[in-house]
Amino acid sequence: MAMETKERGYVRLPAFLERGFSDLRREVVARRRCSMCGTCAAFCDKIRIEDGEPGFIEDYDTVCGLCYTVCPRTFMPRAEIEQKIFGEVSIGNDVLGIYRACYEARTKKGDIREKGQDGGVVTSILAYALETHAIDCAVLTTANGDWRPRTEVARDYEALKEGAGTKYTLYPSVIGVREAQEEGCNAIAFVGLPCQIQGLRKAETANANQPYELRIDDVKLLIGLFCTENYNEELLDFVNEHVPLERVKKFDIKGKELLVYDDDGEVISFSLADLEGFVGDGCSVCTDFTAELADISVGSVGSAEGWSTVIARTERGDEMVRGASESGYIEVRAINAEGLELIKRLAMKKRKRGEEAGL
């Protein structure tokens, strides 16, 4: 990437590394663009996430620029990232990004089907990746008994099943990559939202352009989840007023409703229009619906009930999907044209909304 540089001591740094944490706070946090992805805290040991925003552990600032560089809300060198991971650059009007294949898929494992979201595909692909030693752990966003999100470093099949299911509240899940590294893992899969995938791809691309060791090469597989928007934890307090969270078995979004399933088999529905006050601030400027920079993207939109849409983007991602299918973890079939068009319409809608909010 061609960019202006300045001399600092004996190291020649890219110009964007002149930006520090105070710039991040001013340009991202103060402007309510922070997505709470956790990338800054994952790669800088002086940052932690508290009360819904990043802050320094001590009264300290620096212009090393690492936090500013990896944040997905500062700048996005999309063409450079795409060239690095795909070997090509997407055309501007291609709202699904670059991909090799698109399927409908579902798990063939009955125990995963019982716990998984929609088709249980993410858990099954990760199980295949663990069995074949393509990864040694998977960083998941899971939840405690009252559905408060947390990260989990899953290192076996049972842990993967426990982490199955979508969580609809914001959490800085990228910090789980650091947790996995601290546990000695060096072949890490990460499952997360488009903004989190963007942060990790920025770290991957920036690794060669700055003097710090990010250990991003430990991350071997990125699975991105379709996302229109996500919610802050106040949503859980709201739901708890209608059904005790300890009784909730599953959350799901279908169409224009949030569905809450309780332990009696009852389903309580909430209109998404009534939940807009709980939407995370940073979601408004996001333009990515299908996690376009992931190795594999997964979502329920566009597929039949009980199936998931799976977009294999990179060679590594395609190998994982095909391997999981051939080994009996999942079954796949071609997605129909109507389903693909629906995904494109929603992707275009989010892109336009994000572009307008980002002006």
Walkthrough of the structure:
This protein is α+β, with helices and mostly antiparallel strands and 359 residues long. The protein has helices at 21-29, 39-43, 66-70, 78-86, 110-115, 121-131, 157-162, 175-182, 194-206, 234-240, 315-326, 337-357, and strands at residues 5-8, 11-14, 47-50, 53-56, 101-107, 137-143, 149-154, 188-192, 219-225, 248-254, 257-262, 267-271, 296-299, 308-312, 330-334. An eight-stranded mixed sheet has the order 7-6-8-9-13-14-5-15, sandwiched between helices. Strands 10-11-12 form a three-stranded antiparallel sheet, with no helix packed on it. The protein has a two-stranded antiparallel ribbon with strand order 1-2. A hairpin with a 2-residue loop joins strand 10 and strand 11 (257-262). Mean pLDDT is 87; it is low at 1-13.
Quick take:
It is built from twelve helices and 15 strands.
Number of domains: 2
Task: Give Rg in angstroms.
Answer: 20 Å
Percent helix among the residues?
25-40%
Main structural class: alpha+beta
Spatial ordering of strands, largest sheet: 7-6-8-9-13-14-5-15
**Percent in strands:** 15-25%
Mean pLDDT: 87
Low-confidence stretches are 1-13
Order of helices and strands: EEHHEEHHEHHEEHHEHEHEEEEEHEH
For the largest beta-sheet, the strand count, sense and barrel status come to:
8 strands, mixed
Gross morphology: globular
Q: Figure out the total of helices.
A: 12
Terminus-to-terminus distance:
25 Å
Can you count the beta strands? 15
